[in-house]
Amino acid sequence: MTTDEELKKKVLEIAEKKLPGFHVIIDLFDMTFVYVTKEGAEVNGYTQEEMMGHSISEFMSVKNQDESFRQTIMKTMIGGIVRIPIRQKSGKEVFIEMKHVVVELEGHSFLVTKSLQKPPEK
């Protein structure tokens, strides 16, 4: 049996191989952020600490019960590039293009993303 820390370490290793320079890892079971880089958080105007452990729907301009949320998540399962509706910390709603891959490990699925957008100017 793998501990949570061992699983996270393995996911990080696989994520870096599958999508070098990735920004975020999301647990597809509960849709929470399990890993966020500084750059990934800055794209949304947040800090890593503000995002870690929170649901992805808290940072999107569509909610997880909306059909558009489910459609967006289903598109990410295919991989490639998708446009995600994001609500930045400032309240501004933007569409951010992201690359996605799915990492399957020990019966657990993780979504790995890399934003193609630069963080907003300060």
Summed over residues and divided by their number, the pLDDT gives a mean of 82
In the predicted model, the low-confidence regions spanning at least 5 consecutive residues are none
Task: Estimate the global geometry from the Cα principal axes.
Answer: globular
Residue share in helix? 25-40%
What structural class do helix, strand and pairing data support? alpha+beta
Largest sheet: 5 strands, antiparallel
In the sheet with the most strands, the strands line up as: 2-1-5-4-3
Overall strand count: 5
Distance between the termini: 45 Å
How many helical elements?
Answer: 4
Content of β-strand: 25-35%
Radius of gyration: 14 Å
Note the run of SSEs as H and E: HEEHHHEEE
Structure description:
The protein is of the alpha+beta class. It contains four helices and five strands; from the N terminus they run αββαααβββ. It has helices at about 5-20, 40-45, 50, 65-80; strands at about 25, 30-35, 80-85, 95-105, 110-115. The model has no long low-confidence stretch (mean pLDDT about 80).
Question: In a few lines, what is going on in this structure?
Answer:
Helices cover 30% and strands 31% of the residues. It contains four helices and five strands, in the order αββαααβββ. The chain has helices at 4-18, 38-43, 48-51, 67-78; strands spanning 24-27, 32-36, 80-87, 93-105, 108-115.
